[in-house]
Amino acid sequence: MVACSLACWRCRWLLPLLLGLAIIMGIIALAGRGWLESESGPYVHQASLWESCTRGEQDLNWNCESLMDYGWGRAAAATYLVGFVILVICFALAVIAFSIEILRFNFVRGIGGLLFVVAAFQIIGLVIYPVKFTEEIPLMGANMFSWAYGFGWASTVVVIGCAFFFCCLPNWEDEVLGNIKPTYYYSSPDRAPYLN
C-alpha cells in the first residue's frame, strides 16, 4: 500500500474522514438546485433532484414543477436518498470500527460491501435522472447538468474508492495493527563506493 494510506494505526481515521467527505457532497447534491441549469444567459431553466423551475427571459419569478409527480422522479430521488442513508450508516459503523482498539477486520469488510450497495443505489439515481429528465421535461434553450449533479457523482466516486479500501483492508491486518517489525535497508561502503 501507499505510505501511510492505512498501513499504520495512526492513519486509521483516513477512511471515515473520506466517508464524511462523501456525506457532505451527498448533502450538497440533495439540497442543491444545480442539477440542471441553463448553459448561458438568459437563465431560464434550473432543476434540483426534487423540482424543475423555469421562467421567461424577462420574468424574475421562477415557476416550479415538482418532479415527484413523475414515477421516474420519485425513483431517482428514492434510490439516491436510500444510498445516502446507507452511506450515513456506514460512516457511523466505520467510526465505531476504528474506535475499538481490537479492530474487527471482518466487520470492516462488511462495511466495504455496504458501500458497494451505496454506490449501486446512487448510480441508479444519477443515471435515471438525466435520461428521463431530457425525455419528459421540455427544455428551454441550451442546458447542462451542473454543479449539484457533479457533487452527486463525486460522492459516488469517493464511496466506490472507500469500498475497495474497506474490502482490501483485512489483507494488511498486521501492518495496520503494527504487528510487523520494520525492515531497514542499508548498504555497506564496500558495496556503494560512490557514496564516499
TrEMBL record:
Domain of life, source organism: Eukaryota
Keyword Membrane: yes
Location of the protein in the cell: Cell junction, Desmosome; Cell membrane; Cytoplasm
Mode of membrane association: Multi-pass membrane protein
GO cellular component: cytoplasm; desmosome; plasma membrane
Transmembrane segments: 12-32, 77-98, 110-131, 151-172
Keyword list, A-Z: Apoptosis, Cell adhesion, Cell junction, Cell membrane, Cytoplasm, Membrane, Transmembrane, Transmembrane helix
Signal peptide extent: none
UniProt GO BP: apoptotic process; cell-cell adhesion
Gene3D superfamilies associated with the record: 1.20.140.150
Family: Belongs to the TMEM47 family.
Name this protein carries in UniProt: p53 apoptosis effector related to PMP-22
Originating species: Odontophorus gujanensis (marbled wood quail)
